[in-house]
Amino acid sequence: MKHIEKRKQSLYFPVEMLDEMQREAERLERPVSWVIQQAWKLSKDIISGYPGTSDLPSVLPTPSM
Length: 65
Prior knowledge:
mainly alpha; 2 helices; 46% helix
């Protein structure tokens, strides 16, 4: 069996989002942490395509009027 390292991490969510995750966890009869882990597994490839802050231009173009 594969050993999985577990560690605690504090995450902060807007109350509305946390309430929604809690309702979904209850519906699925799973802990909220499981719901978040599944969401990450499904979305990590999409998120990895987002530009990082170091990928953004240092000076944003000024809109022309």
